[in-house]
Design a protein that fits this description.
Layout lengths: L5 E3 L6 E5 L9 H12 L3 E4 L3 H9 L8 H15 L6 E6 L1 H12 L5 E4 L24 E6 L7 H4 L8 E6 L16 H20 L2
Parallel strand pairs: 2-3, 2-4, 4-5, 5-6, 6-7
Antiparallel strand pairs: 1-3
Helix pairs in contact: 1-6, 3-4
């Protein structure tokens, strides 16, 4: 599986290349569920693994993510394999994968980006923001973020000066995996369905332009 791309959804649907987060592979429970929901909403999802995660799959050793240039180069390669040179392809991802998608969009022409749980800063380091490129980005970006995400809560992020092209959808009481506490009256399944359906509607609108 390590060198493969995983596909979900109808072949005729608009294409979304989806990158995984820093600590979980392309077939994690979160990525599987999101891909299946997108497929059910008529979006063709392409999942892949960054090089460090492929090596981890091969030898079982946990290792940190590759350096940013390696991550970006690999994301670019997957976009080309998915057909980005021939037809519109939306980039997206979970956490780190979503961040890399926005950075790729800042460097090349993409129709749109969708992110789930954007890592606006490292855990416990709110002063080290990762938003510089988001302040001038022209590509339409949609981010679904938990209100109490420790990598960017609503209270923190609403104070950032982001480009008008970057829009956030806040999910009540959600954490970095969009999971709310039981007492909130919401569920993770509910938030995932909401996020993916809204993202799929957005992608379909972009594809129809």
């Amino acid at each position: 599986m390590s060198d493969e791309l995983l596909y979900n959804g109808p072949e005729s649907g608009p294409l979304l290349v989806l990158g995984h987060g820093a600590g979980a592979p392309m077939d994690s429970a979160f990525m599987e569920e999101v891909a299946e929901l997108f497929g059910g909403a008529g979006v063709r999802v392409v999942r892949f693994e960054f090089p460090y995660m492929r090596r981890r799959r091969q030898d079982g050793r946990r290792r940190p993510p590759d350096r940013q240039p390696v991550l970006l180069e690999h994301f670019e390669e997957v976009l080309v394999r998915a057909g980005a040179e021939k037809w519109p392809v939306v980039a997206g991802g979970k956490s780190m994968g979503g961040r890399m998608a926005t950075m790729v969009a800042a460097a090349r022409s993409l129709p749109a980006v969708v992110c789930f749980g954007y890592p606006f800063h490292p855990p416990g380091r709110p002063e080290r923001t990762r938003i510089e490129h988001l302040q001038s980005l022209n590509t339409p970006v949609r981010i679904w973020q938990g209100e109490r995400d420790p990598l960017g809560s609503r209270e923190e992020v609403e104070g950032y000066a982001l480009s008008e092209s970057v829009q956030l959808r806040w999910l009540p009481d959600g954490d970095h995996d969009l999971k709310p506490r039981r007492a909130s009256g919401h569920t993770r399944a509910e938030h995932l369905r909401t996020a993916v359906q809204e993202a799929a509607d957005f992608i379909h609108r972009v594809a129809a332009r």
